[in-house]
Amino acid sequence: MTNSISFDRAADFYDQTRDLAAPVAERGLPALIALLPPQARVLDVGIGTGRVSAPLLNMGVDVMGIDLSLKMMMKLRAKHPDVRIAQADASRLPFAARSFDAALTTHVLHLIGPWREALREIRRVVRPGGVYVNAWHHHADRSVHADIRDDWRQRVRA
Fold it and tell me: How far is CA 128 from CA 41, 88, 102, in A?
């Protein structure tokens, strides 16, 4: 494994300290589903306890999840015994090219040491024309996240 950060230490309290924001649950997930073809396969990179993927699974979405933390994924397995999960590093995804219609990363890219490699891997496993969604919490103060966001906005405009 790389110098990415596992959340094993947080497995026992993670679900009690984080919820899925109502706007994401009510508008974000349905918007994502609307972008997917029928019987879409979705990869959740950093699935953890399933904060985002559990609702997708409940809506009938075919989700495959990877995470470094076995303890986090076992919490998800307790809620969804049939969930498909694998311990894997995002920078070396154990899937064939073009295996998924969509990929998700939620509050995880900053925990992946080789994040550029992870993005290349996500691009490799998502079919052409597929969907990639990266979600994070915006901090109003000046932060590394704000600097990265501003840099990307400038690059997109250019």
Answer: 13, 23, 10
Query: CA-based Rg of the chain, rounded to a whole angstrom?
Result: 15
- Pairing relationship of beta strands 41-45 and 62-67 according to DSSP bridges: parallel
**What pLDDT shows up at residue 121?**
97
E strand or H helix that includes residue 149: helix 144-157
CA distance 140 to 120: 29
pLDDT tens, residue by residue, 110-119:
878 899 999 9
CA 36, CA 53: separation in Å to the nearest integer? 15
Sequential DSSP letters for 55-97 = HHHHTT-EEEEEES-HHHHHHHHHH-TT-EEEE--TTS--S-T
Question: Which SS3 state, helix, strand or coil, does residue 9 take?
Answer: helix
Residue 101: exposure state from Cβ atoms within 10 A (0-12, 13-18, ≥19): buried
